[in-house]
Amino acid sequence: MLETMPLGLNPCAIGASELWRPEAFGAVLAVGSARNAASAATTGELLGCKVSHIVTVGSYRNYSAIAALLIENGHEDIEHQYFRMSDWLRPDEELDLKVELSEALQALQSAVQPMGTEDRIVLLHCDQGHNRSPTLALSFFLYNGHNLRQAYQRLLQARPDVDPLPPYRRGLQTLESELYGEQTVFEHDYFARHITELMSLPNIKELACACPASFHPQPIEDDEEPLEETLDTSETFDASETFSFALTVRRFAIAALMAELTAAGVENGVMFL
User: Fold this and answer.
1) Residue 272: which residues within 8 A CB-CB, separation 6 or more?
2) What is the model's pTM?
3) Exposure winner among 18, 34, 191, 213, fewest CB in 10 A?
4) For residue range 89-125, what is the model confidence (pLDDT) as tens digits?
């Protein structure tokens, strides 16, 4: 029963993001959450297309729930694969993504190869669609003709709220250097920094204040009674303010990256190796 699925896994098609659609018929690569995968397993469709593959890099519990939905709804023809990616990493952990993601990348590469004469969805997902699946998507683009800057452009254009953990982001920079012998993303490229790293910048307030007002989060109206004066809320307020500054800087950095994309006229396609 859907009510007893682990981690609140109720099917929902809203929120899946299309990363790439071929000019002719073929595989449409999408990134989403476990709830998006549950919806695909229930209906056999997502983003207006039939689903041919579901690649799971989220929790094994959610993978099992999705596998059960595929059987329950008669969609065993959808190829469903699971690959482990950790959502709990030490901030200083170093990852070799060429090794860590090799099997998942091979599966994803195979899934998007041309087959048939109709559009079909290859859904790549983790639990929330914010960390693990975006990391795999960025790695996939690196292996298919994009440098890391172009990969971020493609991903953030479709899904601006993703936020891979710092070890994954460093691993992507290392992977780019190994594949292309150069780096295109640097320390000052704030679109490529985790929100916690932005919050730790000593000049984050100054950076945020330099951003146009349109990039600042809208203040939340609070109609509730004020807290008692005896309650010290300074730490909570400071953390919230710093997060707001970091979010502003991130939004502005992404907008600047999208402007580069428009100016460069990057083609809407993937060069498969």
Assistant:
1) 109, 112, 113, 144, 145
2) 0.88
3) 213
4) 999 999 999 999 999 999 999 999 988 778 899 999 9
